[in-house]
Amino acid sequence: MKIRCFLIILLSFTFPIAALAEENLANVEKLDAISDDAFQMVKNQRYEDAQKLLSNFSREFEQMYDGNIPFTLDELRIVSVSRDEAMEAAASPTMEYQERLNKVTSFRLVIDALSTSSEPLWSEMEDEVMGAFGMAKKAAVKGEASQYHANLNSFLALYELIYPSMKIDVPKEQLQQVDARVRSVERLHTTLPASQNDLEEFEVLESSLQDIFEGIEEDEADPSLWWVIISTGSIIILTLSYVGWRKYQGDKEVTRKRRGLKD
Question: pTM of this prediction?
C-alpha cells in the first residue's frame, strides 16, 4: 500500500512536467504558423493582411508571459526586435518590396529557429551564403573588382538576413567570433583586399562559417524534452530504489523471524 502511494505521488509530479512541455511546444508551433502566414502575405504584397497577422502574433506572444515562457531572456529580445522590424516593414508606406521581404523573412527564420530543434530554415541557406562568399573570395584572388563587390555585397545581405536566427542556435562565443570576422571583411566591401593578411582573413572566415553550418546539422533534442526525460528518468530510478529498499527490509525481517524460530 505504501509503495502504491509513493508511486502515485511521484507520477503526480511527472505528468504536469510532460503536460507543460507539450503545451509550450503547441504555443511555439502556433507562433511559427502565424509567422509563416505573415511571411506569405508580404511575399504576395498583401501588407494589410500581414499587419493583422503580426498583431495577432504579438497578442499570442504576450499571452505567453502569463504562464511559463519557454524562451530565455536573450531569445525574447531577439523575437521582440525581429517582430518590430517585421511590423514596420508591413506598415511602411515607402519601404521597397525587397527590404520589406528581407525584414519579414528574417523574422520568419527567427521563429522557426525557436520552434525547430534541428535543421532550422536558416541553415538551409548554406549553399547561397557559402556560394556568394566563395565567389567573392575567388574574385578577390583574381583581382576582379566588379565581381568581388557584387558577390561580397550579396554575402553580407544574406548574412544579415540569417544573423538574428543564428543567435538562437549558435553558441554565443562562437557566433561573436564569426561576427567580428564578418565585420572585418565588411570594411573591404568597397575595395579589393590589399594584402595577404586580408586574403587570409577570408580563408579563416570561410572555415568558421562552414563550422557553424556543419555544427547545426547535428540533431539536438528540444531542451524541454530533455527536461522531461531527465525528470522522468530520475523518478523511475527513485521508484526502483525505494522498491528495492523495501524488498531488502522485508527480506531482513523474514531472516530475523526465521532465526528467532530456530532459537
Answer: 0.73
Handedness of CA 21, 27, 33, 38 (dihedral sign): negative
Helices and strands per DSSP (H, E), number in the chain: 9, 0
Residue for grid cell 522522468: 232
* C-beta atoms surrounding 108 within 10 Å: 24
- 117-220 is a CATH 1.20.120 domain: yes
Name residue, grid cell 504584397: 45
Alpha helix (H) residue ranges in the chain: 2-43, 47-63, 73-91, 97-115, 126-142, 145-169, 172-186, 196-216, 223-262
Distances (CA, A) of 2 to 84, 211, 246: 56, 54, 10
Contact (CB, 8 A) for 14 and 230: no
Calpha distance 228→12 (Å, rounded): 13
Distances (CA, A) of 87 to 80, 209, 210: 11, 30, 32
CB atoms within 10 A of CB 7: 14
Q: Which three cell numbers stand for residue 133?
A: 562568399
231 vs 10, 66, 188, CA distance in Å?
A: 10, 24, 51
Query: CB within 8 A of 39, min separation 6: which ones?
Result: 104, 105, 107, 108
pLDDT tens-digit series, residues 186-245: 888 778 876 788 888 899 999 999 999 998 866 444 444 444 444 444 444 444 444 454
